[in-house]
Amino acid sequence: MAERSTAELVEPFTFVVGTDGALRLAPRRSEHVVCAGGAAVPSAGEIGFVRDRDRCAVGEVSNQSTGHCPDVTSWPAVARALDRVGLARPTGFTHEVVFLRCPACEERDIVREDDFACVLCDGDLPRTWNVDPTV
Prior knowledge:
The mean pLDDT is 91. By secondary structure, the chain is α+β, with helices and mostly antiparallel strands. The protein is built from three helices and six strands. It is elongated, with a radius of gyration of 16 Å.
């Protein structure tokens, strides 16, 4: 990251946190599933960096990953991974995305403006995360 120009740091990166706790980065247009090597991960999303004096710091971070659809409660895995590499960071996701699976049609949905209705069948969505098929 230290070798990247300020212009290169403007566009967010795709990230995943591996089960080993490691933070893995890829260009933003990369698929999270590919970045994770096809493995399940504790968290995934997009991350943007800023220069903080002579160091890089996390400016923004979200759980925006339609491949993994991580819950907003996956933040602690991200925080540990960032702390592990010594990056200054916010106290939570700067943009939270609520992913849910429709019980009626199994469609993955993103909740917008507190509208807990499936975009495909208009069925009611649960209030708790249920995207993982094992949940």
